[in-house]
C-alpha cells in the first residue's frame, strides 16, 4: 500500500480531472437508473390509459434523461482518460528523476530485461489504476446509496435487497477474488520478467550463439519461457472470467429476488403494482454498474504489484542519496585525489573486489595503475568517477568526500575514456559534439587528426553502437571526444588496448602534451611507455602490491619488475 500511496500522490496532482470524472460518472450512472425506472413506470402507467399529457411528460423525461446520460458518459470518458494520460506522464517523469541518479550502478542489481519490463510494462499497467481502481468504487458507492435511498420511499424490503446485493457484488465477492488474484498476478509478472530477460539476452547474444552453434538450445529455452508466460496469462484470464460470471450471476439473482419480493408485496397490498416494473428496472440498471467491480480485483492486484516492483528499483537506493546533502564539485585547476582504506564489493557478488586500498594523487600528477586482469584497476577508476559507492573508507577530491558531491559535477570536470564506450547512431560530428557545446568543425577535425582518424570526415555515418567502426577506431574516437572536452582531470581505462604501438605512442604524446598541468590517471595492462609517469601503482587481487616511479620499482625488483620481465619475454620472444 505504501507504493500505491506514492502513485496516488502523483495522481492527485490532477485534482480537477479526478473531480470531473467522478461527477460525470455519477451523473451518467444515476441518470441511467432514472431513465430505466421512468421507462418501467411509463409502461405500467400506459397500461392504465392515463391522460395523454401524462404520457407526453413521461416520454419527454425519458428522452431528456437519455441525452443527459450520454453526454455525462462522454464527459466521464474524456476527463478520466485525460487524467490517466497526465498521471502516466507525471509518473514516468517522477520515476526517471529517481532512477537517473542511480545509473549505472543500478544495472549491477537488476538484469536489463527485468529492468526494461518494470520501466515499460509496470508503468503501462498503472494506467488502469485510475480508470479501474481509484474512482469507479467512489462513483458506484454514490450511485448505489442514491438509488437505495430513492427505492426506500416505495419499498423498504426492496431497498434492503439492493443493499445486500451491493455488499455482495461490490465488497464481499471482489474481496474474495482479490485474495486469490494476488497469486496469479505475482506469477504472471515473474514469468513476464523472465521472458523479457531471455529475449534481451537472446538478441544481445545472437551472433555468439550462432558462432558457437548454440542457437537452437537458446531458442528452446526462450520458447519454454514463452509457454510459461502464456500459461500464467491463461490462468489469470480464466480467473477473471469466473469473477465476472459470478458477479453477473449475483446481479441477476438480486433482480429475481426484487421481482419475487415485489410481487409478494403487491399481492398483499403493501406495494402499488404500478411501481413493480419500475423497481425491477432499477435493479437491472443499477447492477450494470457493478461490472467494473468484477474486474476490480485483477486491476487492484495488478496496480499493487506494478507499483511495488517499480518502486523497489529506486526505494532503497534513493534513501542513501537523500540522507546526505550533496554539493557541486567545482575546480579550475587540476584536482588532487586521496583514497583512504576503501573496500568495495559489487552488488550481488560475494567476492570482494577492492580490499584496503589507499593512495594519494597530487594535483597535476600523472599516475598509472597496472596489474593483471581482474586485479581491480577498472573498479578503482569507476569509484573515482563515483559510478559506485564504496563499502568502507572514503575518496576525497580536493579534500572533499566524494559522496558529498553530485556525480554530474564530477563527470563535468573529467575527461573519461572507459573500456567500453558508447557511440550513437548518426555521424562522427554527432558523436564528437557530446564532448561539449559550441564545438567548431575545425576543432573536431583537428582532434580526429591527433588520433590518426583524419581519414574520416565529420559527416561520415556511425551505425548503432559503432558497429561499422573497428575496435581501434572506437577507442581513438573516444579519445578524441575526451580531448575536445579538455577538463583538468583525465581518467583513462585501457584507452589504447586495441591500438597498434606506433599509433599508441603518437596518441599518448598528444594526451600528455594537452594534460601537462592536469591530473591524469591511466589504467593499463601494458607496462611500456610508463617511464614518464610520476607514480605507478601495481595492483593484484584487489590490493595494492607496490607503488613508486618506474625507476624505483625496477630497482626494487619486486612485483612490477617480475611483470616487466614477463612482458619482455612474451613480446621479444625470450
From TrEMBL:
Provide the GO MF annotations for this entry.
ABC-type oligopeptide transporter activity; ATP binding; ATP hydrolysis activity
Q: Which GO terms describe its cellular component?
A: plasma membrane
**What taxonomic lineage is listed for the species of origin?**
Bacteria, Bacillati, Bacillota, Bacilli, Bacillales
What's one GO BP annotation on this UniProt entry?
cell redox homeostasis
Q: Subcellular location, in the record's words? A: Cell membrane
Q: Can you tell me where the transmembrane regions are?
A: 20-40, 52-72, 133-154, 160-179, 249-267
User: Where does the ABC transporter domain start and stop, copy by copy?
Assistant: 337-566
Topology of the protein relative to the lipid bilayer: Multi-pass membrane protein
Signal sequence range: none
**Gene3D superfamilies from the entry?**
ABC transporter type 1, transmembrane domain (1.20.1560.10), P-loop containing nucleotide triphosphate hydrolases (3.40.50.300)
Checking InterPro entries in the record gives: AAA+_ATPase, ABC1_TM_dom, ABC1_TM_sf, ABC_CydC/D, ABC_transporter-like_ATP-bd, ABC_transporter-like_CS, P-loop_NTPase, Type_1_exporter
Q: Which UniProt keywords apply?
A: ATP-binding, Cell membrane, Membrane, Nucleotide-binding, Transmembrane, Transmembrane helix, Transport
So which domain of life are we looking at?
Bacteria
Q: Where is the ABC transmembrane type-1 domain?
A: 19-302
Q: What's the protein here called?
A: Thiol reductant ABC exporter subunit CydC
Amino acid at each position: 500500500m505504501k507504493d500505491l500511496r506514492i502513485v496516488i500522490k502523483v495522481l492527485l496532482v490532477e485534482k480537477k480531472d479526478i473531480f470531473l470524472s467522478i461527477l460525470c460518472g455519477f451523473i451518467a450512472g444515476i441518470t441511467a437508473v432514472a431513465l430505466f425506472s421512468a421507462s418501467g413506470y411509463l409502461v405500467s402507467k400506459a397500461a392504465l390509459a392515463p391522460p395523454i399529457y401524462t404520457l407526453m411528460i413521461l416520454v419527454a423525461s425519458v428522452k431528456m434523461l437519455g441525452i443527459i446520460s450520454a453526454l455525462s458518459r462522454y464527459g466521464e470518458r474524456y476527463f478520466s482518460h485525460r487524467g490517466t494520460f497526465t498521471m502516466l506522464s507525471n509518473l514516468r517523469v517522477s520515476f526517471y528523476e529517481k532512477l537517473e541518479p542511480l545509473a549505472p550502478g543500478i544495472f549491477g542489481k537488476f538484469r536489463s530485461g527485468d529492468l526494461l519490463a518494470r520501466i515499460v510494462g509496470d508503468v503501462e499497467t498503472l494506467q488502469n489504476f485510475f480508470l479501474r481502481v481509484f474512482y469507479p468504487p467512489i462513483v458506484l458507492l454514490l450511485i448505489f446509496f442514491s438509488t437505495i435511498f430513492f427505492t426506500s420511499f416505495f419499498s423498504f424490503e426492496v431497498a434492503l435487497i439492493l443493499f445486500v446485493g451491493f455488499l455482495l457484488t461490490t465488497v464481499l465477492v471482489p474481496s474474495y477474488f482479490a485474495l486469490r488474484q494476488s497469486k496469479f498476478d505475482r506469477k504472471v509478472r515473474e514469468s513476464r520478467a523472465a521472458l523479457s530477460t531471455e529475449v534481451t539476452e537472446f538478441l544481445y547474444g545472437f551472433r555468439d550463439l550462432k558462432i558457437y552453434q548454440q542457437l537452437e538450445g537458446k531458442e528452446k529455452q526462450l520458447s519454454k519461457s514463452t509457454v510459461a508466460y502464456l500459461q500464467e496469462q491463461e490462468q489469470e484470464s480464466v480467473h477473471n472470467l469466473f469473477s465476472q460470471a459470478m458477479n453477473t450471476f449475483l446481479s441477476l439473482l438480486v433482480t429475481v429476488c426484487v421481482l419475487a419480493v415485489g410481487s409478494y408485496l403487491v399481492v398483499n397490498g403493501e406495494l402499488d403494482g404500478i411501481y413493480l416494473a419500475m423497481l425491477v428496472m432499477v435493479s437491472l440498471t443499477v447492477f450494470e454498474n457493478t461490472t467494473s467491480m468484477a474486474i476490480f480485483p485483477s486491476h487492484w492486484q495488478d496496480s499493487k504489484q506494478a507499483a511495488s516492483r517499480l518502486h523497489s528499483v529506486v526505494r532503497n537506493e534513493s534513501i542513501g542519496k537523500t540522507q546526505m546533502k550533496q554539493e557541486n564539485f567545482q575546480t579550475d585547476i587540476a584536482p588532487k585525489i586521496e583514497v583512504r582504506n576503501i573496500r568495495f564489493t559489487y552488488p550481488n557478488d560475494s567476492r570482494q573486489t577492492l580490499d584496503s586500498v589507499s593512495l594519494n594523487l597530487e594535483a597535476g600528477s600523472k599516475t598509472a595503475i597496472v596489474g593483471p586482469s581482474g586485479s581491480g584497476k577498472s573498479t578503482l577508476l569507476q569509484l573515482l568517477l563515483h559510478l559506485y559507492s564504496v563499502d568502507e573508507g572514503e575518496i576525497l577530491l580536493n579534500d572533499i568526500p566524494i559522496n558529498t558531491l553530485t556525480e554530474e559535477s564530477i563527470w563535468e570536470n573529467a575527461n573519461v575514456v572507459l573500456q567500453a564506450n558508447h557511440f550513437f547512431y548518426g555521424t562522427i560530428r554527432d558523436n564528437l559534439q557530446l564532448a561539449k557545446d559550441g564545438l567548431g568543425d575545425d576543432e573536431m577535425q583537428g582532434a580526429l587528426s591527433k588520433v590518426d582518424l583524419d581519414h574520416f570526415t565529420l559527416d561520415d555515418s556511425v551505425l548503432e553502437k559503432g558497429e561499422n567502426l573497428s575496435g581501434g577506431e572506437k577507442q581513438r574516437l573516444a579519445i578524441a571526444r575526451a580531448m575536445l572536452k579538455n577538463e583538468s582531470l583525465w581518467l583513462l581505462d585501457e584507452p589504447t588496448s586495441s591500438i597498434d604501438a606506433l599509433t599508441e605512442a603518437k596518441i599518448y604524446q598528444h594526451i600528455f602534451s594537452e594534460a601537462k598541468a592536469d591530473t591524469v590517471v591511466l589504467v593499463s595492462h601494458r607496462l611500456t611507455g610508463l617511464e614518464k609517469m610520476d607514480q605507478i601503482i601495481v595492483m593484484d587481487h584487489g590490493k595494492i602490491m607496490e607503488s613508486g616511479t618506474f625507476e624505483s620499482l625496477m630497482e626494487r625488483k619486486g612485483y612490477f619488475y617480475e611483470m616487466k620481465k614477463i612482458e619482455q619475454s612474451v613480446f621479444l620472444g625470450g
